[in-house]
Amino acid sequence: MDILVVGGGGREHAIIKKLRENKEVDRIYALPGNGGIARDAECVPVKATDIEGITAFAKKVRPDYAVVAPDDPLVMGCVDALTNIGIPCFGPDAKAAVIEGSKVFSKNLMKKYGIPTARYHVFEDAEDALYYLETAPIPTVIKADGLALGKGVIIAETRGDAKDAVKAMMQDLKFGKSGARIVIEEYLEGPEVTVLSFTDGKTVVPMISSMDHKRAGDGDTGLNTGGMGTIAPNPYYTDEVAARCMEEIFLPTIRAMNEEGRTFKGCLYFGLMLTKDGPKVIEYNCRFGDPEAQVVLPLLETDLLTVMKAVTEERLSEVDVKWSDGYACCVIAASDGYPVSYEKGYEITMPDELWPYVYIAGAAEEDGKLLTSGGRVLGVTAVRPELREAIDASYDMLDQIDFANKYYRVDIGQRALRAGK
Ligand code: AMP
Ligand code: GLY
Questions:
Q1: Structural domains counted in the chain
Q2: What is the CATH number of the domain that holds 84?
Q3: Phi, psi angle pair for 8, to nearest 5°
Q4: Is the pTM of this model over 0.90?
Q5: Domain end among 54, 76, 93
Q6: Which atom of ligand 2 is nearest to the CA of 11?
Q7: Which atom of ligand 2 is nearest to the CA of 287?
Q8: What CATH number is attached to the domain comprising 377?
């Protein structure tokens, strides 16, 4: 059985390593993959956003199944294109991926169906937005409507910052046309939880909850990044909260998408804030999180391919999705200076026996050597019976991995440890 995976980061590496656990899997093609993924799959130099290139390659090799992991190809209709040429696929079609592709769509969906989220206003005109900000409650949150590489959200602590954000998005088009339309929303407070879920549009199976660490610096300081580390499960996500999320958020979202004629099949990511008024949706993503996948998938006991195919074939209710009892911690090593500017091209060295626990995000292979090629370079995940052990073990492994200008946060999981007591 041959599988094609679209994408080339740490998340895709985690998906590929998990798929490899299925003995029936022969070849895995990664488009484009990266120098580290090349050790676990056949990398093909086709960009994840080159939908024509992806379908042309798929027509040639006829994989038995495909997994489209990143947001852009999903929003661009990669699943539609592959399905059209007869290749069964994991991931939502373009109509459903709009739940991440447009913040205005997702906010309006939540409003229409009574799904708890921050109060908001939509603006298509910068002058109107600036006028609104004269009296808006501060802090406030400004969001570009479209995809912006995870950078289209500004938490403004002052009116001036809020106005600057609006000007940057709407007038200077800092995020291109993604920012031509914006959402300004209420600032919410509380612990954040990520819940990824498998859904075939009929059944929703939440995965183990997780906690991301988005800021670049220790103690949640500095700029927002793609994520500097994760732990799972998230101690704030108690059984009681989970039951409430299922009733008030997960099932209503699945039903709402069906009502809209946009049935969602794939991994639906719920970014939640546990406010004092109950759980509220901060964001939906139409895909696995990165680096959430790197802690959630290692805890999955059921075969991933079996679950994915059941999603595609709309028989998820028949599969018993099981999780191990332990804890996982993933620490990301980045190039110093990320997310602003950084040097790359440095050799990465590590003991071979660590490889099963390492997910490469940004590295190229040259003459058998792995060289850093991105901001986030790699993540290392440990699974242990206790959270503290998982944290210690992932840092121990990270200590054995070297490259010049290696940067990582030293406090991944500390907040969760304090909460768990
Ligand atoms: P995103 O890029 O959509 O993942 O958002 C980045 C981060 O901004 C989230 O993880 C939250 O920490 C924060 N955020 C987004 N919306 C709000 C909000 N309404 N109130 C407070 N924080 C928010
Ligand atoms: N780690 C956050 C995301 O994948 O959007």
A1: 4
A2: 3.40.50.20
A3: -160, 40
A4: yes
A5: 93
A6: 4
A7: 4
A8: 3.90.600.10
Judged against a pLDDT cut of 70, whether residue 239 lies above it is answered with yes
Instruction: Examine the domain organization and report whether 37 and 139 are in the same domain.
Output: no
Tokens 């018993």 sit on residue: 320
Ligand 2 pocket, residue 9 CB under 6 Å = no
Q: Is the CB of 33 under 6 A from ligand 2?
A: no
Which ligand is located closest to the Cα atom of residue 116?
A: 1
Instruction: Report yes or no on 172 lying in a domain.
Output: yes
Note the pLDDT tens digit of each residue in 328-347: 999 999 999 999 999 999 99
Backbone phi and psi for residue 9, each to the nearest 5 degrees, phi listed first: -125, -165
Residue partners of 409: CB distance under 8 A and separation at least 6? 213, 216, 217, 218, 228, 229, 331, 332
Distance of CA 367 from the midpoint of ligand 1 (Å):
42
Residues 313 and 198 in one domain: yes
Q: Is 292 in the pocket of ligand 2 (CB under 6 A)?
A: yes
Q: Is the dihedral of CA 311, 314, 319, 321 positive or negative?
A: positive
Residue to mutate, 143, 292, 412, ligand 2, most ligand atoms under 8 Å from C-beta = 292
